[in-house]
Amino acid sequence: MSDGKNYEIFVQNLQQALINAEEFMSQKNIEIERNKKIIDNCGIDREFDLYWEYEVAGLTYKTVIECKDYASTISVEKIDALVGKIKDIPDLIPVFATKTGYQSGAKTKAKHNKIELLIVREQKDEDWEDKEGNPLIKQININIQISQPNLINSIKAEVDKGWVEENPHINLEKYIVTPEMQDKVLIEDLDKQMTYSFLELSDKLKLDSSSSGEHLHEEVFLDAYLLIDGIKVKLKKFKIGYTSFEPAFLPIRIDDSKELLGVIEYLSKNSSTAIFKDKIIKNWR
């Protein structure tokens, strides 16, 4: 048997999490007290491990929990002791909590005196099995693949010489395409009835690259134009140099067993509640 302090704090934290998770209870700003002293009707100080109270419709509801961190099951004498402490304090809701369980006499005595019996414990292997003994999922492993876009390093566009001769007023030096212009310059391929930017082409090339590293891509057109600042320049072909990258992988491990703070078993209801860091699951298993 330990001094019980750590177990009291353990039970307090789980019970506080339950209170905070209930919308009605959380509005009451209830704080669980430890080592609460209450003077009974005989003027005697009675100390309880855990205590909290709240008021509804002018009535005050007071709950006490006695916590026993024993290696063996709770005997009827321990329930007798709690009965003696509360008999001269009216309107208390008594609860008993332990890790291991209760002897049959303790259960009978508690039921006769309307004492709720709890088993409040840390998780165990059986918590991750269903009622038929089949394993439940407690860990999820995910590998996220992150693909980096290709990086265009150079763009060399060759215009149609015949078209240039027919349009001598066009100053082609103004329309030299650079990698910095890849999202502003469009390719209008009339033969294939497609219009796209060099930036969009970069995404398409990602599918064509079989390996990371430096690559060259060349296309020849039958009937296509470069669209630059609203001006059409007939395009014969282009060649681009680009770098493709190996995809990065981001492993994500979700382990619910590390999130499970503890389990409360309610003997009178034959049910249990699991308290996780960020959720409460009633009717656990």
Question: What's the short story on this structure?
Answer:
The chain is α+β, with helices and mostly antiparallel strands. The chain is 20% helix and 42% strand.
List keywords for this structure.
single chain, 285 residues, alpha+beta, Trna Endonuclease, Chain: A, domain 1, 2 domains, 8-stranded mixed beta sheet, 5-stranded antiparallel beta sheet, 6 helices, rod-shaped
Q: What is the number of strand segments?
A: 15
CATH topology tier name of the largest domain: Trna Endonuclease, Chain: A, domain 1
- What is the first-to-last residue Cα distance? 29 Å
Count of individual domains = 2
Order of helical and strand elements: HHEEEHEHEEEHEEHEEEEEE
Query: What share of the residues lie within helices?
Result: 10-25%
Residue ranges: pLDDT <50 for 5 or more in a row?
A: none
Gyration radius from CA atoms, angstroms: 37 Å
Mean pLDDT: 88
The profile of the biggest β sheet is:
8 strands, mixed
Give the CA-based shape. rod-shaped
Individual helix count: 6
Q: What top-tier CATH class of the largest domain fits best?
A: Alpha Beta
SS class = alpha+beta
- Tell me the fraction of residues in β-strands, as a range: 35-45%
Could you explain the architecture of this structure?
With 285 residues, the chain is α+β, with helices and mostly antiparallel strands. It contains 6 helices and 15 strands. The mean pLDDT is 88.
Element layout with pairings:
Blueprint: H1 5-21, H2 23-26, E1 33-39, E2 45-56, E3 59-68, H3 76-86, E4 92-98, H4 104-112, E5 116-121, E6 139-146, E7 151-159, H5 161-166, E8 186-189, E9 194-197, H6 198-208, E10 213-228, E11 231-244, E12 248-255, E13 260-266, E14 271-276, E15 280-282
Parallel strand pairs: 3-4, 4-5
Antiparallel strand pairs: 1-2, 2-3, 5-13, 6-12, 7-11, 8-9, 8-10, 10-11, 13-14, 14-15
Helix pairs in contact: 3-4
